[in-house]
Amino acid sequence: MEDNKGPAIKAACITLWTLGTVFVCLRLFTRKHIMKNVQVDDYLIILATAFGWANAAMAIVAVAHGSGRHTDTLTLGQQGNAKLFTILSFPFGILSFTIPKLAVVTLLTRLLNPSRVRQAFLWSLAWLCLISVIICIIILFTQCTPAAFMWGGAPEGKCISPWVLINFSIFTGALSAFTDLCLAIYPAVILWGLQINIRKKTALSVALGIGSISCGVAIYKSTRLDSLASLDFVYDTADLVIWTAAEATSTVIACCIPILQPLVEILFGRKILSGSSSSYKNYDYHNDRYGRSGDMELSKIGRSGIQHTVTSHTIGTRSGDPDLDSKESILPKDNKGADGQNPKMHSRHITRTDVITVTYGDRATIDSEQKDLGVTTAV
């Protein structure tokens, strides 16, 4: 039997949050330098990452005092400190996987413009998760009177049954998993109803729906919650500490991946999403692919949930070079034939073709969309 899980706790917390921080940095680079616009959800992700590192710091300090080892191998002082810092790590951990849910809802409501009912549903789930974890934190620190009695900091005291905290934590974990699943499924359902390239549709659905991974992690972590009632607390809660960090980092990474689309396309080419082999070397993301809010234009969905499509038709053409304004001025003026053309250039003539496109759509819809987001997307 493994007698010391302390090194595993340290390795997991440092590795997971280092990886998560890399994705957060890439997200911020994309937002600031490519999209030219940092949004509220970016600040929420930064806050979640800060809580995550606080969780890791508390867990590492707990390991230094003996967390991850069996209680009977520690002194009373080590037992108290290990339990104290383990308990202190939990609030930061659960906040670090709850706050990103607010960031995801912020992103989805801005990109997909859902109806008021759908917005209310998404925001209700996110805020209910936050309220639930706050209640968990309150129960955690008030289950014993005085609170220091929990970790041996007070000689006398009394505590309620630890299963009060465990049962409510299981409810909170289930709610968190359900929220992650809803936030993963919703954009996929919307995207599959849009008239866009199947490859791009699939890629965007996967990018926005990757949060379903954190749903699975949340479910598994909930099976470790009974360790909160263990008499060998500092040893048995080691798995819970690790999986709390895993749930938080998977949620943060899942929030960052959709934002990295333009960076990925710059690095690997436009064909990643659109199937084209053209490069984005000279592509202006801020002014072309993205609206004034700095986000990728997936589609515009009306408040009523009905997609409004703007249609384009080519109504005429004329000959010429599409990149040049000059016509006859670029041909030699001497030695013209009877038809006014240079015989030597006759077989090498330059053709100009101008395509005139008229875009039209429902005026009321366009006005409404411009009012909401300041941009109208043509599909």
UniProtKB/TrEMBL annotation:
It is a multi-pass membrane protein. Coiled coil: none annotated. InterPro entries: Rhodopsin_dom_fungi, SAT4-like. It comes from the Eukaryota. Residues 26-265 form the Rhodopsin domain. The chain crosses the membrane at residues 6-30, 42-64, 84-108, 120-143, 163-191, 203-220, 240-260. Residues 320-337 have a biased composition (Basic and acidic residues). It is found in: Membrane. This is Rhodopsin domain-containing protein. The lineage of its organism: Eukaryota, Fungi, Dikarya, Ascomycota, Pezizomycotina.
